[in-house]
Design brief:
29% strand; alpha+beta; seven-stranded mixed beta sheet; single chain; 13 strands; 279 residues; four-stranded antiparallel beta sheet
């Protein structure tokens, strides 16, 4: 096996969170969109398993989501030498780790000739966002991330993403949300959204108050970028990435150039999830 796969980031255009149920997990309802900000995973047949990571300080052992994804596959799999080239910032709410796991699952499931239901089951076992990345595009995610409903592709805008110089841990943000009593995030009205999103208004991210409670400076980033951009700035996932909507890719790219940010990019909407590439 010698394959290269692209693993895209996502933004949560909205994220509604429910109180934890008997399982201890929070049910969600989220409008999600993959974007053209990509990690790259190279996979090669090998005598022993090995993973190298470039572009981020991440573990390469069993705790890495790539291995967790492969461990979820049902049946014997080939030994692999893999190289993960990280471009998507970690701890930003952009789903890079889940996308990497989905890429590994999709690649190896194909070699193992697994049916789609087995591939989907492995993705669900690997993590909440992983099933979505198998298909990507515009989708509604419900439950604990296992229910993914594809929606008509959004169009007519690009997105500027800016990542502040700090990370947020998803589990910590959800725990803070619980301790705050389950606050509702600020809503963005229809008139401030691109036309193709107005029927979904108001958009909101319920984890925003919890993330700001942990890192108060995130509130400054949201406020300052909203003023600079002259349009609402929203948080993706559990943070810390902030995004805004722009009319075209050039405008989004210019808006993403923030000197003090950890990372930034003007991105187009991507209609697919993980995919094999010749690059």
């Amino acid at each position: 096996m010698d394959e290269v796969w692209e693993a895209p980031a996502k933004v949560n255009l909205s994220l509604l969170v429910g109180a934890p149920d008997a399982s201890g997990y929070h049910p969600i309802r989220s409008l999600v969109q993959t974007i053209d900000w990509l990690d790259r995973l190279e996979l090669h047949s090998a005598v022993e398993d090995r993973l190298e990571v470039f572009g981020a300080e991440l573990p390469t052992g069993a705790e890495n989501l790539v291995w967790k994804g492969l461990e979820a596959l049902d049946g014997p799999r080939p030994k692999l030498e893999m190289t993960l080239h990280k471009a998507i910032p970690v701890g930003a709410g952009l789903g890079g780790g889940s996308a990497d796991a989905a890429a590994a699952i999709a690649a190896v499931a194909g070699v193992m000739s697994l049916v789609s239901s087995a591939t989907a089951a492995a993705a669900q076992t690997a993590g909440a966002d992983v099933p979505y990345f198998l298909t990507g595009g515009t989708a509604l995610i419900e439950g604990y991330g296992e229910r993914v409903s594809p929606l008509p592709a959004l169009e007519g805008f690009a997105i500027a993403v800016v990542v502040p110089p700090f990370e947020l841990a998803t589990a910590e943000v959800y725990a803070r949300w619980d301790s705050l009593g389950g606050p509702v995030g600020p809503g963005v009205r229809a008139s401030a959204l691109p036309p193709s999103l107005r029927s979904d208004a108001p958009l909101r991210n319920d984890l925003t108050p919890a993330a700001i409670s942990i890192r108060p400076e995130l509130g400054d980033w949201l406020s300052d970028l909203g003023s600079i951009w002259d349009r609402p700035a929203m948080m993706s996932g559990s943070g810390s990435a902030v995004f805004g909507f722009f009319g075209n890719l050039d405008e989004a790219a210019e808006a993403s150039l923030v000197h003090s940010a950890r990372a930034g990019s003007g991105v187009a909407l991507r209609r697919i999830g993980v995919s094999r590439t010749d690059r």
